[in-house]
Amino acid sequence: xxxxxxxxxxxxxxxxxxxxxxxxxxxxxxxxxxxxxxxxxxxxxxxxxxxxxxxxxxxxxxxxxxxxxxxxxxxxxxxxxxxxxxxxxxxxxxxxxxxxxxxxxxxxxxxxxxxxxxxxxxxxxxxxxxxxxxxxxxxxxxxxxxxxxxxxxxxxxxxxxxxxxxxxxxxxxxxxxxxxxxxxxxxxxxxxxxxxxxxxxxxxxxxxxxxxxxxxxxxxxxxxxxxxxxxxxxxxxxxxxxxxxxxxxxxxxxxxxxxxxxxxxxxxxxxxxxxxxxxxxxxxxxxxxxxxxxxxxxxxxxxxxxxxxxxxxxxxxxxxxxxxxxxxxxxxxxxxxxx
Length: 339
Hints:
Blueprint: H1 10-38, H2 45-55, H3 59-62, H4 64-76, H5 78-87, H6 89-109, H7 114-144, E1 148-149, E2 152-153, H8 163-187, H9 190-221, H10 223-230, H11 234-238, H12 240-256, H13 263-283, E3 286-288, E4 292-293, H14 294-297, H15 301-328
């Protein structure tokens, strides 16, 4: 009854939905994780209050997209979930602990003063750093691929702790710091905004370096990726991605050092999108690089069809309340406590 497989490529549709959910999560939770990463370096307690208030209405709702991405992988691609989760148990647990610590610190900070508040400030920073770093580690290991035997993870519990994954973890920390800084350029004023512009200018150089390392490493690590990007005529089709990324960085640099407030945040989103598209192109059609494709790991067509109906109903609702919350809390943020 619910089998749409005769006229829809369900694995491809579900891969697109999961990829979109993860990207939306990276953008939305990225700026509040970035604010947490930058939090201790703010110029004053008043600026820290302003930073906290700028993300207070949004931070918990942003994590909806992480649940959607993880839940979608479990439901639509159970084989991929069964392989990738054992490979990343420890980094996933550490990421979740970081998110929990950040959430607890967020709530308790508003109810404390003095030394206790400084403790929760530190907890907010550490939780944000831990979550961001572990997300980058997971990304780095997915790009490299995991050891698979038959239909199971065949590696060790610490295989994820390798040099390239560490580099991608650090790069994502700087990436989130950049998107957090550009968010603060948009949402704050005066000393906090001036500081955010200075920080954005500084961390953007590290984001460029991180993207260069990943861009060079990926084709060197696998001949299939090298062939994809550097063979003819693919090189002409794919060349716009690095060219547009470079152009976006140049424009970002100009807008950071201008009076514009929204443009830096939008350009950072474009940079993230271009980098994300580059990674997806490199690993397509693998969902467990480089062992199982989307179609190899997909659930039964009837299951994916039924899930798609529920998603078609709920996804517009999630998008609507997310958009509404951002509309209601538009405009500049102050340091006054309203949370």
